[in-house]
Design a protein that fits this description.
By secondary structure, the chain is an alpha+beta fold. It contains 13 helices and 20 strands. 37% of the residues lie in helices and 27% in strands. Strand 10 and strand 11 form a beta hairpin. It has a domain of 223 residues: FAD/NAD(P)-binding domain. The mean pLDDT is 96. It is globular. The structure holds 8-demethyl-8-dimethylamino-flavin-adenine-dinucleotide and P-hydroxybenzoic acid. 8-demethyl-8-dimethylamino-flavin-adenine-dinucleotide binds next to helix 1, strand 13 and helix 9.
Amino acid sequence: MDIPNRTEVAIIGGGVAGLMLSQLLHIEGITCVILERQTRAYTEGRIRAGVLEYGTVNLMRRIGVSERMDCMGLRHEGFALMDDGEKLRIPLHDLVNTDVMVYGQTEITIDLMDACEARGTPLVFEAKDVALHDFDGAAPYVTYTKDGVTHRLDCDFIAGCDGAHGICRATMPDATAHAVEKVYPFGWLGILVDVPPMDHELIYSNHERGFALASQRSATRSRYYIQCDVSEKIDDWPDDRIWNELEIRLGDTADHRITRGPSLEKSIAPLRSYVCEKMQHGRLFLAGDAAHIVPPTGAKGLNLAASDVSYLADALIAHYRHDDEVGLEGYTKRALDRIWKAERFSWSMTQLTHRFPNMTAFDRQMQKADLSYIRTSAAAQKSIAENYVGLPY
Ligand code: RFL
Ligand code: PHB
């Protein structure tokens, strides 16, 4: 495909945020070009999120990329919290009349990339050395290198959708001064395996040896996580050690059995909460992980990327269709309100379900009291359910 040298919106990053934004703009006739640093195979292959809020599901439907999701995705009407082996089911559907959808980020990425290809949205893979220019004026542009040749892309706006380690936030003036961060003293070791899941719903377990999560991708593919030290090496975790640990932490029993199998993928990710409260400068706007990180306990990262780009698309559409600048001016404020609520929920789920180093007897009693309260209070369960399925946007 010929890549134009002028577009309305230059999108940096072809992850979920960038790809979704491109489709939201495309259906409104607003042109964009996506510049992605990696290859298509690498971008599609990353194993990450698994739980979609109903708002993300609706967004996928609205942009016409839901066919495979509606066919292969698993509707979950509840999930379980477990503490020292005692299980409490949060019946999402009964409490808030809404479900979540279990559908892998890998699959969403494939669906969105296929849509880009089918609709002719220019998507440049292996775009190296991306640099942003003149975004505090009326005529920004982006330069990048592809196959050793430097290109210039003129645009009206730049959307920074390049994740936590991209260049957009690094280029945003004063971003560091507006950053708020919390680092957790542990990480998650994740394993993907082709065996049936141990339960039809997700189980978040707080055990004296640390947190564990039983998740899934399909009836034949499981995803498990265990809390570990961030300094640990993946080589110290042969599959058998992971399975032994999962069986202990998730309470493997005769009627609740973990099926073992060889790992298809395993990796360790650190946990942190991070918000860059400055999400725009001139004609540069940040969205998704480029602006914020949540610990995965609340399953919110991908879903926040979706709500950010939905707000940003609304604002850009109002600009192009009605010369209305209010949405663009208020983008950060509107996005941050939802981001902070998701940060709060992800933090509280992490607090509730993990064993912290140097945890005191008092800290543990707080977890137990919290869970006991949730067990006996319909209001507390409803609050968890409302946040888990996703606050409206
Ligand atoms: P991404 O997906 O990181 O995409 C950014 C893209 O930008 C590219 N890039 C550049 N391109 C051009 N030039 C540069 N200089 C560039 N620098 C980077 C990158 O190659 C990449 O393709 O960010 P985006 O789109 O904002 O999406 C965010 C989500 O990926 C992320 O929040 C979720 O994966 C978080 N997450 C979860 N979110 C959920 O909603 N539900 C979950 O169940 C869930 N589980 C998880 C997760 C994240 C995890 N890890 C690995 C951190 C579980 C885990 C273990
Ligand atoms: C996942 O399946 O990858 C997953 C599910 C729920 C979470 C985090 C990750 O909270």
